[in-house]
Amino acid sequence: MNPHVDFQAGRLDRSAPFYIAGHRGLVGSAIWRNLEGEGFSNLIGRTSRELDLRNRADVFDFFAATQPRYVVLAAAKVGGILANSTYPVEFLSDNLRIQVNVLDAAREYGVERLLFLGSSCIYPKFAEQPIREESLLTGLLEPTNDAYAIAKIAGIMHVQAIRRQYSLPWISAMPTNLYGPGDNFSAAGSHVLPSLIRRYDEAARTGAGSVTNWGTGSPRREFLHVDDMASACLHLLENYDGAAQINVGTGSDVTIRELASIVAEAVGYDGQSHWDASKPDGTPRKLLDVSRLATTGWSARISLPDGIKSTVAWYRENPDHIRGLPVS
């Protein structure tokens, strides 16, 4: 059994080995950039080809060899409505194995501080808005991504169980919808914002007269730039120690129609937008209550229009960055 670690808020050791699981993904790469900027000099990362986190023996061998003191578990199989509804088995099985292997190995090899990253889809489809942390497990999930949500809920429970049984100050954070450099812009695997950027950018380049989007455009969503998320992760590791998952977001939302309009302006598209109501909308609204996060002294800094403009610029500078369903 690991010895009790008394958590005291303050700076993490910038020279200690720090493993970012999923360091090539949207969130992990932003966390890596932020940690480098904050002076961390012993960052550890492995691609999914170098280390398959679904392989338990390999994960334990990796932890034995690297002995990280801190860990952020940002590795996951992720995707939008189409991907989640098409591949529920992979979203459940792969994510459960990744989480169990990393969390068990981290406990076995004495990781002091660990941050598990989940998703706001863990909350019930019709949770009271804005969604408080206490809403977890109080209602039915959105069926289009329930497999992924169940996996993430299991991760939260795993962290809480480790806190109870081994007295380790590990924490979980649930970000709202994230976007920014390094996102997945593929047609099959992307979330709503990168999907809109890809679609409207193509329409602007080809001179298309209209763009057709999924759903009615009426659902409301909250979006957080991934660089803000990375900042929040380090802040929480240095300032938060609680058993409950903590929401990370901006505290404000927009309709998908409004989002499409912001994207169209950012890419310079002046055509028409149509909406295919035969396609699913997903959850009608998903806005996180971030009051608990605010009490720790952190708030988002990057506005949605500015964040989308910079993301469009990055996307255009990286035209080959269209990928399938990532594992890390």
Task: Walk me through the structure.
This protein has helices at residues 26-37, 56-66, 81-86, 88-108, 146-166, 192-206, 226-239, 256-267, 291-295, 304-317; strands at residues 18-21, 43-44, 70-73, 113-117, 171-175, 177-179, 210-214, 220-221, 223-225, 246-248, 254-255, 272-276, 285-286. The chain is globular. It is of the alpha/beta class and 328 residues long. It contains ten helices and 13 strands. The strands form four sheets. Strands 2-1-3-4-5-10 form a six-stranded parallel β-sheet, with helices on both faces. The chain has a three-stranded mixed β-sheet with strand order 11-8-13. A two-stranded parallel ribbon has the order 6-9. Residues 324-328 have low confidence and may be disordered. It has a domain at 18-183 and 224-250 and 287-302: NAD(P)-binding Rossmann-like Domain (Rossmann fold, 3-Layer(aba) Sandwich), CATH 3.40.50.720. Strand 4, helix 5 (146-166) and strand 5 (171-175) form a beta-alpha-beta unit.
Write the layout of secondary structure elements.
Blueprint: E1 18-21, H1 26-37, E2 43-44, H2 56-66, E3 70-73, H3 81-86, H4 88-108, E4 113-117, H5 146-166, E5 171-175, E6 177-179, H6 192-206, E7 210-214, E8 220-221, E9 223-225, H7 226-239, E10 246-248, E11 254-255, H8 256-267, E12 272-276, E13 285-286, H9 291-295, H10 304-317
Parallel strand pairs: 1-2, 1-3, 3-4, 4-5, 5-10, 6-9, 7-12, 8-13
Antiparallel strand pairs: 8-11
Helix pairs in contact: 1-7, 2-4, 4-5, 6-8, 8-10
